[in-house]
Amino acid sequence: MHIVVCVKQVPDTKIIKINPKTNTLDRRSAPAILNPYDAHAVQEAVRIKNLTGGTVSVLSMGPPQAVAVIKKSIEIGADRGFLISDRAFAGADTLATSYALSKALEKISMDLEVDMVICGKHAIDGDTGQVGPGIARRLDIPPITNVIEVTRINLPEGNLIVKRKQISGYELIQSELPCLLTVEKDINDIEYAPMPNMIKAARYEPVVWSVSDLGEVDRKQLGLKGSPTIVGKMFTPPKLEGGKMIEGALEEQLNELMDILMERKDLFSFNNSK
Amino acid sequence: MPEKFDVIIVGAGPAGTSCAFVCAKNGLNVLLIERGEYPGSKNVMGGVLYRKQMEELIPEFWKEAPLERPVIEQRFWMMDKESVVQFGYKGLEWGQEPYNNFTVLRAQFDQWFAQKAVEAGALLVNETVVTECLVEDGKVVGVRTDRPDGDVFADVVVLADGVNSLLGKQLGFHKEFRPDEVALTVMEVINLSKDKINERFNLSENQGCTIEIFGDSTKGNLGTAFLYTNKDSLNIGVGTTLSSMIKAKLKPYELLDYLKTHPMVKPFLEGGESAEYLAHLIPEGGYRSVPKVAGNGVVVVGDAAQLVNAIHREGSNMAMASGKMAAETIILAKHEGDFSESSLNRYREELYGSFIMKDLEKYKDATHVFEKYPQYLRDYVPMVNRAASKFFTVDGTPKKDKQKEIMRSVTGEKGTIRVLKDIYRAWKAVK
User: Fold this and answer.
1) Is A198–B128 a contact, with Cβ atoms under 8 angstroms apart?
2) Which of A168, A167, A162 is nearest to A182 (CA)?
3) Is B10 helix (H, G, I), strand (E, B) or coil?
4) Interface touch A199/B152, C-beta < 8 Å
5) Where is the Electron transfer flavoprotein alpha/beta-subunit N-terminal domain (chain A) (predicted)?
6) CB contact, 8 Å: B3 with chain A?
7) Are residues B332 and B415 in the same domain?
8) What is the C-alpha to C-alpha distance for residues A56 and A118, in angstroms, rounded to an integer?
9) Interface of B with A in 362-391 (CB under 8 A)
10) What is the residue-level pLDDT of chain B in tens, covering all 431 positions?
11) Are residues B59 and B134 in the same domain?
12) Does domain A2-226 have CATH number 3.40.50.970?
């Protein structure tokens, strides 16, 4: 089983500052980390590999520093990593990113056929969740988003069953392999990496490809040129105002809360009865 | 089969990284283990990096290292409640190559320095805690980390695990600290615009200033405070020995708040925004507190070996020099295939023959004297302030009479003999 995990280096948005004048992220203010959802994606690939055997490759697109997230993935237990890095990729939106990554996946597949692609649900700097499904569409494999459990893998029959999180519940899906999963954080806990992995990662030098290494590529679909997305405006959501702090003993708090809720006529249907 | 390295270095601070850098440059197989998220993430220092020892490792490092400002002015303050007597030196020659020292932010500098060791061939593993040294037949043969399959082996283990060296304690090299052997320093990084810093400290572009503050900065207790200029932030901090803190029932953060609101200090900070708050122990026991630094298959460097000169605020430079000396000994030991204590004791000899131990020896009584006789900071600093105030106040008294009056007030308060004794004792401690 060959699983490829797509990972992205992102600024740690837990601590990033937003420039109040331009409303853009001040990327210098936060360290670059492996996108947290992608860490869970790598962990899941490693977990599956430990059950079925095979290889876990990670793939990333970014500047040369993005090697760090591939090393991080090796720590978690990935076997090898590929970075596509080229000025031609710069300024890519989700459309151009999914195109470049799908080209790299095709190349990886030529060497060792890919049975499954796993991505994080979304990157915490853009929050779009479009790149995963975009790759699936381009590779013409089924995308399954918001996966919280890989329930069963049936290699001889070439299919798997996964559990998806829906707004109103869960969904069990059976899909052919190869397919592409995007995973939620609930799918697993990141394990504390064993020491040999740490040493391997410290030593590891990923394969770095430029555009010309990817074979036949339509350069018009890469980077800024291949990106129709225009950012109209960025803004920090206004702070919610008002509100009321309820204090006192638990019983008092509950009583007060109930009083407030009961006064809100629109809240309960029995108050709305005509 | 767990891996075996030539050298495992525990701790990627200045001492460990220097040692890793020199070993790796000489072709040794080096594993550098850091417990923090990245080198520098857990390290704290007031912020002055000396040029000399760093330059011996990486010539002209100032051209690429992330430095804040070259220090062109050093001020020393004897501070009382509402006054300060100051002296200092400002020289433009310090603003040119090869410079004298720099202010740095450790989180950035240590990362850069560790990267240099990695480029030289050392393997760096972060976020990993070494829990103990592995000992076989009285010889250290490796380390145990807190990770699964966590044992790693090496010919030599270098303990660069900092002031509270748990590994040194495990091996019996260290005893638990006495409260007078260690200082607790708290500091804050305060963001302030470059223009405001230049204006308030009277600096031009790429010029830095350091102020060491004695006296009321520690409410008269044994210790010092500092105020250093970074590019667009200030480092302000204060530390006293744990024993003084206990005796005076001081809380470190209260002391820092007191300093920040002191009328002599506050105007420098006004409008600044607190960016980081840090605290750390500093080994200040000096010469007598230096533990055993070499054993079978193990050496101790930097803060772990208590190599800090509290009087001259030197520490990171001693850490670097000791790391380099340890590396040179290890390279020789590797060459001879002998990692016994007697072979590694060459490092001890190097250390004791160098400026590090000579300086520590020179001041071996200093902190102890100042600890035992608290009058220096508690009484004499205010006394000097009163004398200066009297001398510089123009009130029609002839200067000669003023001098007499000042002398009388100094000896009058304590008695001539006691003052002379105090002067002699202080002189003896630092001579």
Assistant:
1) yes
2) A162
3) strand
4) yes
5) 22-218
6) yes
7) no
8) 10
9) none
10) 678 999 999 999 999 999 999 999 999 999 999 999 899 888 888 889 999 889 999 999 999 999 999 999 999 999 999 999 999 999 999 999 989 999 999 988 999 999 999 999 999 999 999 999 999 999 999 999 999 999 999 999 999 999 888 999 999 998 888 888 888 999 999 999 999 999 999 999 899 999 999 998 888 888 889 999 999 999 999 998 888 888 888 888 899 999 999 999 999 999 999 988 999 988 888 888 899 999 999 999 999 999 988 877 888 999 999 999 999 999 999 999 999 999 999 999 999 999 999 988 888 887 777 777 777 777 888 888 888 888 888 888 888 888 888 888 777 777 777 777 777 777 777 77
11) yes
12) no
* In chain A, where the domains are located: 2-226, 244-274
Mean pLDDT of A127-156: 94
Enumerate the residues of chain B whose CB falls inside 8 A of the CB of residue A31.
Answer: 38
pLDDT beyond 60 at A273: no
Binary contact (B150, A194; C-beta < 8 A) = yes
Cβ-defined contact of A202 to B152 (cutoff 8 Å) = no
Closest by Cβ to A192, choosing from B38, B125, B147? B147
Distance from CA of B103 to the nearest CA of A (A): 20
- Contact between A130 and A15 under an 8 Å Cβ cutoff? The reply is no
Q: In this structure, are B46 and B156 located in the same domain?
A: yes
Cross-chain Cβ contact B152/A195 below 8 Å: yes
Please tell me which of the candidates A196, A201, A202 has its beta carbon nearest to residue B149.
A196
User: Nearest CA to CA, how far is A195 from chain B (Å)?
Assistant: 5
- pLDDT digit string (tens) for A16-69? 777 777 667 776 777 889 999 999 999 999 999 999 999 999 999 999 999 999
CATH of the domain at B166: 3.50.50.60
Which residues contact residue B177 at a Cβ distance below 8 angstroms, ignoring those fewer than 6 apart? Answer: B164, B242, B281, B285
Which residues in chain A are closer than 8 Å to B40, comparing Cβ atoms? Answer: none
- Taking contacts as CB-CB distances below 8 angstroms, the residues of chain A near B124 are 202
Residue B258 lies in a domain: no
| Residue B401 belongs to domain spanning | 367-430
Contact assignment for A195 to B145 by CB distance below 8 Å: yes
- Whether B345 and B378 map to the same domain: the answer is no
Residues of B in contact with A190 (CB under 8 A): none
Q: Tokens for B133, please give them.
A: 């040294």
Closest C-alpha among B346, B343, B293, B349 to residue B319:
B293
Contact A196 B128 (CB under 8 A): no
Give the residue on A whose Cα is nearest the Cα of B29: A203
Instruction: Quote the percentage of chain A above a pLDDT of 90.
Output: 70
Q: Structural domain tally of chain B?
A: 2
A79-83, A228-232, B257-261, B263-267: which has the minimum mean pLDDT?
A228-232
pLDDT of residue B389: 87
The answer as to whether B194 is a domain residue is no
Indicate whether B20 and B148 sit together in one domain. yes
